[in-house]
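Q: Make up one entry.
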Amino acid sequence: MNLLKNKLQILITLIFLGYLGWWISFQQVLADQGKTTQWFGSTYAVMALIGAVVGLVASLKWGGYKTVLGKALMFFSLGLLAQEAGQLISTYYVYSAHLESIPYPSWGDVAYFGSTLSYLCGAIFLSKAVGVKISLKANKAKIVAFIIPAILLAVSYWIFLYNHKYDWRNPLTVFLDLGYPLGDALYISMGIVAFLLSRKMLGGIMRAGILILIFALLAQYIADFSFLYKTSRGSYVPSGQTDLTYLIAYFIMTTAMVKFLAIYNDLRHKTATQVKDGETQGEGA
């Protein structure tokens, strides 16, 4: 079990390091935006696709939609899948439709915003899995649960939405302008609240997987924050630091999916060993 787990993580790490080395190789000529940078920007979400597949397998192992943790892993996997879909649609606009700039909103935004909603659902189920509902009975916990989301929502509003000019002739544009930063703030808030209110409950075999998931949410929030901030100011450069941040976020989330799959396999192996030992002792008696 451990050997299979290590092989999968090693493979994913090698793919990540390959993309990282590729990214480093063209940063000196990033402004030229040659085919190398274009291909990088069109393919690095393969890491998200791998994570989605591993995550769906892990979700099914943990009971799928029948269990709270299974639901959390399923929604995180769907979020990764939506990120891959968004990149494929963006690639179509550039290479097949031959558009100089990707329209906003576009079908790609449907996928990307679907990812935001999926991560939010995943974070909600994750918080239930680690016992936030129980922790919220304490007064301190209630204060933390209110302050963290309030701060992140206020920061997101101040940076992205304060004095923002809305195109009320296009309601979908207005919806996405509001939905992207506020949705991201909500899912990272749920992740942080789940950690702060449940840190004493994260011991044992589940601890590593849950913490990696929270770090993955944080990395995704930073990536989206960077993209929205630079895009709103006209400073976003394809295949630059923002895309590297997305690659890192996908890698961390994929690592979390691998970890939960490994935890399930380890528990099953441990249970099988205990049953076998019990049968052996019974025969000896």
